[in-house]
Amino acid sequence: MFYILGVYLGDSVYQNKDKQLLGYVENVGDLSKKETRVYQTNAYLPYHSDLSDVVGLISIRKAKIGGESSLVSFASVYNTILKEYPEYLAYYYHPAYYHHLGSNNPSISPIFSYWEGKLACRYLRKYIELGHEKINIPISRVQTDALDIFDEISHRPEYRLDMMLEPGDIQLCNNYVVMHSRKSFEDYEDQDKNRKLVRLWLKMTNARALAPDFPGKNGFS
What CATH number has the domain spanning 2-203? Predict the structure, then answer.
């Protein structure tokens, strides 16, 4: 039923190299392995946006302890950078290398883009760091400072909307407008009671127009 709702709104796209249209968000991965995606563990999931116009989640079971979801507006982060750190703003419009686990090569995109009167953003710090590592171009001190500023502002309590997704709750987020995160959690000893969500990535026919240097990316081909 969740999938049917999703394809009524848009087109589902592949979430990994295995071409899954429905992703299962649960603690089944090994965090010690570099290729493990954080959503497959019970670790804290930093603020980020996904590789689709919209990301949808439905809660099947919640954790024994923790696992709250959190949202932050990109516009709030942008306006705060503009007010408090204007000397860094230009960096976020420069291309960054993103290496998404499951992709062959890093892709290039700025963090912020302004096109046809609308602000859009793409952010996942871990993948930016992996991208620069992949092409053997170290991240500069100024770039690190800019990412630190972005993260510090994103974590300010006044900008966050925290919520516990109860079983049956659905969350839909525009990836160009909102970042999402998840707190770490503790599961039950009984695996059948463990935290579990189902995820959809959607390509929308009514998605905003994007700048030529801010290429849209909907899933894995």
Answer: 3.60.130.10
